[in-house]
Design a protein that fits this description.
This protein has strands at residues 41-52, 58-68, 72-82, 85-98, 103-110, 115-124, 127-132, 137-145, 157-166, 174-183, 186-195, 198-208, 217-223, 228-237, 240-245, 251-258, 270-280, 287-296, 300-310, 313-319, 324-328, 333-340, 343-353, 356-361, 367-374, 385-396, 402-412, 416-425, 428-440, 445-450, 454-463, 466-471, 476-484. By secondary structure, the chain is mainly beta. 54% of the residues are buried. The chain starts with 40 loop residues before the first strand and ends with a strand. Among the domains are: 149-258, Beta Barrel (Lipocalin), CATH 2.40.128.120; 266-374, Quinohemoprotein amine dehydrogenase alpha subunit, domain 2 (Lipocalin).
Length: 486
């Protein structure tokens, strides 16, 4: 595919399914009002995914770019994969502009003479969320500020990871979570992998080569004895690394985070956790789930709920009944049983820390993986107060529309909200402002209704600053996440 598809996004959690061709009755004066071009300054690494509108194919992309704080993208390099086509290390320059509310637009120019127009919203100086708006694809992504001091050597230490790849069909999807130690670039560890309908626990070996001293980009391999996965990696800092599969015909993205403990036990999983996951059934990106549960630190799970859409069929506020359970190994691997009213759910967690984990759903009918975060604080309508940045991606089965949205959600702490966003629906871009309402339950499950969009928005709060989101409408596959704007 032509490189005009650079910066097509990583679908985190989606929000709405309406086409968004017209706005509501509000003005556009949201956000902190103190943003400018200087808010985007430094070198950023990104991970991206989307749908090529000319072929209908899913793709994945990752790389780095440098913003000068004055509206210029001075350098960059991009890796891209669609189907069996892989294009590596394509150079990039461009321009951008940021409004006072943190929304912005930009153009990326590529070495092959093509270009890309994108819209974005600033979370803070260390992160932006962005979507493509030039009509060639629907996609959205996240870029994070890098720490250059981490570029001097390969990652070092013990890390938990999550990696999801898919091939030319969803049946060839692979989801993996695990932990490994890197010493002098050599990997030793363990993983749980869902492959061709079977969950396996396997030893993991491989390597991280030295990163480029300027970009923080390096290469490496994972080998679990069944398959070897070559990848490019991008240093965010010494504790966080982004992954991009470079194996032709197997497109994938992943994340690596340093474990904060040398040993874990049952008490390492304790408190309320909110989570979000997505995956593939017979179709790519055909299942999305958000929810929460409470672990007691002694091997028991209770007081949970979840919402999901799988192949267009929605499940709403599914409760955990009876007693769930978990076991924890010293390396951070937890076997988790969630007793949902719709059927028992088996999952494998690998702990980054007692407050964060990557997990894989043990289900032969799908390849689904995600992230869980420890909830903090009590929850009510007043917990959601201020301006939040949200990023969406998804598609509708009924209309075959694909779309992405990025923008702000402003909540007043009393149940009223306004959404203001840029949207790309199957190649048609526009901006939208709409009114809505919300209600927050004590477990952090927030429901929302936005006029002309949907009455079935579901948010599971990690805190008053962060949430996993699902558009829980039948016939839709849409999820996302939101972070409070700083």
């Amino acid at each position: 595919m032509n490189k005009v598809f650079l910066l097509l996004g990583l679908g985190l959690l989606s929000f709405t399914i309406a086409c968004g061709s017209s706005g509501g009755g509000n003005n556009n004066s949201f956000g902190g009002g103190n943003n400018s071009n200087s808010k985007l300054s430094g070198q950023y690494a990104y991970q991206l995914s989307g749908i090529d509108l000319s072929t209908g194919s899913f793709f994945r992309e990752a790389g780095v770019f440098t913003a000068d704080g004055n509206g210029n993208i001075t350098a960059g390099t991009d890796d891209f994969a669609e189907g069996t086509s892989v294009s590596l290390a394509v150079t990039t320059t461009g321009t951008y502009s940021i409004s006072s509310d943190g929304t912005g637009s930009g153009v990326f120019n590529f070495a092959n003479g093509s270009s890309l127009t994108f819209a974005f919203t600033v979370v803070d100086s260390s992160q932006i969320d962005l979507i493509e708006v030039d009509g060639l694809a629907t996609a959205g992504g996240t870029a994070r500020l890098q720490t250059a001091s981490a570029f001097s050597a390969p990652p070092s230490g013990t890390f938990a990871f999550r990696l999801h790849t898919f091939g030319t069909t969803a049946d060839s999807s692979v989801g993996a979570v695990g932990a490994f130690t890197v010493a002098n670039g050599t990997i030793t560890g363990n993983e749980d992998v869902e492959r061709t309908g079977t969950l396996s626990s396997l030893p993991l070996s491989g390597s991280f080569n030295f990163p480029d001293a300027t970009s923080g980009r390096g290469t490496g391999t994972f080998d679990d004895g069944v398959a070897t996965t070559p990848f490019a990696y991008y240093m965010i800092d010494s504790s966080t690394v982004l992954l991009f599969s470079t194996n032709a015909g197997t497109n994938g993205l992943g994340q690596v985070e340093k474990q904060t403990a040398t040993s874990f036990n049952t008490a390492s999983l304790s408190g309320g956790y909110a989570f979000g996951s997505r995956g593939d059934t017979a179709t790519v990106d055909a299942v999305r789930t958000v929810g929460s549960f409470t672990a007691d630190g002694s091997g028991n799970i209770s007081a949970g709920a979840l919402d999901s859409v799988q192949d267009g069929t929605s499940s709403t506020n599914v409760t955990l009944t009876g007693s769930g359970s978990y076991t924890m190994a010293s390396n951070g691997r937890a076997a988790v049983t969630l007793p949902a009213s719709t059927g028992t759910i088996q999952e494998i967690y690998w702990m980054v820390s007692p407050s964060r984990a990557f997990f894989l759903v043990d289900d032969s009918t799908k390849v689904e993986d995600g992230t869980a975060d420890l909830q903090s604080g009590s929850f009510s309508n007043s917990s959601v107060n201020g301006t939040y940045v949200f990023l969406n991606d998804g598609y509708t089965l009924s209309t075959s529309d694909t779309f992405d949205r990025v923008g702000t959600l402003t909540a007043d702490g009393s149940g009223t909200l306004v959404v203001n966003y840029a949207v790309n629906v199957t190649g048609s871009a526009s901006t939208v402002t709409l009114n809505g309402s919300y209600s927050v339950a004590s477990n952090g499950r927030m429901t929302g209704s936005v006029n002309s969009l949907s009455n079935n928005l579901v948010f599971y709060l990690v805190s008053g600053n962060q949430a996993y989101i699902l558009q829980n409408d039948s016939g839709a596959e849409i999820d996302g996440s939101m972070l409070k704007q700083q």
